[in-house]
Amino acid sequence: MTQTHAGFTRVRVFIQLIFVVLILLISVAHANGWGGENLHGLCPFGGVATLYTFVTTGDYIRHIGQSDFIMLFALILTLIAAGAFFCGWICPLGTVQEWVGKLGRKLFGKRYNKVPKKLDKILGYLRFVVLAIVIIQTARSFTLVFKDYDPYFNLFNIWTDEISITGYITVLVTLIASLLVERPFCRYACPLGAINGLFNVFSITTIRRNETSCINCKQCDLACPVNLEPSSSKQIQSMACTRCMKCVEACPVNQKEPTLTVSLPGKRKLFHNGMVYAIVMLVIFIVPIGISIALGAFESDEPLVYKTADDIRGASTVADIAENYDIEIDLIYKAFNIPETLDTTTKIKDLEGDLGVAVSDIRLFVEYIDRPISEINKGTMSQNSSSTQTLRDYVNINAPGSYYHLVEKEGVNASEVDKANQIKRVTMLIDIKSMVKDYDDFRQTFSIPEDQPLNTEMRDLIDELGVELEAIRTYVETHKK
Hints:
- By secondary structure, the chain is mainly α.
- The protein has helices at residues 8-31, 45-49, 51-57, 66-82, 85-90, 92-108, 117-124, 126-141, 151-155, 165-178, 184-188, 191-198, 219-223, 246-250, 274-294, 318-325, 329-335, 348-355, 359-367, 391-397, 403-406, 429-435, 439-445, 458-465, 469-479, and strands at 206-209, 260-263.
- It is 50% helix and 2% strand.
- The radius of gyration is 27 Å and the shape is elongated.
- 38% of the residues are buried.
C-alpha cells in the first residue's frame, strides 16, 4: 500500500460493514414489527422496476413506494460522480459475496476466480437480459416479478416467512458460486449492476493511468477482483468495474509520481486518500435521502393492512387475526388446540416451535373459515360431517385440534377449488382479464371505467364502485375462457 493512495481498502471495508449491519438491523426491525422499513423500499432498482407503471398509471407496483424513486435519484447522482461506486462500496449483497469469496480464495487458491476471458465477457451480458426481462414482465404484470428470485431481499430476510422456496435456492446458489468466482451475481445476473456499469463510461471521476510513468509491472492487473487489465488502459471504463480501487492501491509507482489515479478529465489526480473519496461520494448519495426523510417524503411500502389471508405474517399476533378477520379468539385457540393460558399477543411465528402452528396453517384457516369444508384438502374428516358445513361450524362442534383432523399441511386441493374462488381482494384487473373471454363485457357489467388501470385491485373496486367480490367470482365462473 502506498502513501499517496492510502486507505482505500481499509475505508471501503469499514463502509461496507456499516451498510450490511444497517440493512440487517432494518430487516430485523421490520420483521418483528418494530418499525423498520420494507427492504424493497430501500433498493434503487425498485424505482427502475416501477417506473413504467408510475408513468402510465400514477401508481406504484406492490411492495414499492416513493422511497424507491428517492433511492434511485441518489444512486444516479452517485453514478454520475463515480460510476459503479454503489456496487463496490455500498451494496450489502456485493459485500457478502466478497466475504464468501475470501473463504473461496483460501479453499481453492489459484483456481479461485479463474473464468476464461471470452466466457466472462459473454456471461457479463446476461445481466442485461435479466434487466430487460424484469422490466418488461413487471410492466406487464404490475407486480414485482423479481421478488422471489432476488438474492438481496431473500438473503436479508432469510429468517422470516416472507420468502419462497425460490428465494432460498437463489441465495444458496449465489453463496456457493461466490466460493468459486468473485461477485458472481453482480457480474452475471444483477439488473441494477447492469445499469451501474454503463455509467463507468460517463462518470465525472474515473480511474486513469499515466502511460508515461507506468512501468507495466502488472500489479494492478493482479489486484483486480473482476480480472480487468488496468495496465493496458488509459481509463478504466469497463462495465464490470466496481470502483473498489484495489488497482489504485496496488500501483507501486504512485508513491513517487501519480500513475494510476482517481481523477477528473484532464487531471492527473484528484482523490489520493480513501477517506476523502468515501466521504465525498457518501455525501452525494446520502444527502438526498436524508433531506427526504427530514421532509417526511421517504415512504416505502404502504403500512401492512389485513385484507386477505396472504397479509398474515409471522409477526402477526393471535389478537391481530381475531380483530381483522372477525374470528373469535376462542375459535382460533380451539382450532389449533392452543392453551387458554397463552397470551393473545403471542406472535404466530412463536406458535410453531411449541405447538407446530405454522403461518401457512393460519392463512389457510382464515381463508376458508366461512367456506364449505368440502373445498379443503381432506385428511381424516369425520364421517358425520356435512360437505356443505363451513369450517367455522366444523371447528365449533368438534373437539380442540379438530382443524388438524380436517386438513393436511399441503393446504387446498387445487383440483377441488375452482379458479374463480381464488379471486381475492388483492386480485388485480389484469388477472381478471386473463380469466374471462370478453374483458370489455366484464368491465361494462360492473360499470368499470374504460381507463381504469389494470393494476387496480378488487378491494379498490369494492370501495369505490360498490362491486361485490362474490359477484365477480360468479361472473368469472360463468364467463371463463
